[in-house]
What does this fold into?
Amino acid sequence: MTGMQYNCTIARSGTMYLVVFPDMPNVRTFGDTKAEALANAADALNGCLAADVARGMLPPKPAYHGKGSYGIDVLPHIVVAIQLRQLRGEKSQTEIANRLAITYQSYQKLENPVKGNPTVKSLERVARAMGKKLIIEFA
It folds into this structure.
């Protein structure tokens, strides 16, 4: 699995540092310092992504926005849920669950970053069922 980042920009407004994500216009935050603004940006981005993905909404693909932007890492458990949803494509969760010989609810949890906690073995099974290979790396 490769890492995922969304870029944000920071602008000073009076004594505050305001953060916006061009790819995620519903995510905005601020901080008293640039470091605090970036820490808040990570919390805001990951919270929004987890909530959206848990409700079945795929986020837009992150794009690079050039000089002056800051990359914010998406937490690995959220990346896994996004990648599973993308991998499933137009197939239903029930169809994938049947391929894996598990219940629909069990598969549904795998795509939910709030409730799911897939094991590496579970991810290997999903990869095989989808004709893919699981690759995990530490960076």
Observations:
- The longest helix spans residues 34-54.
- Residues 76-129 form a domain with the 434 Repressor (Amino-terminal Domain) fold (CATH 1.10.260).
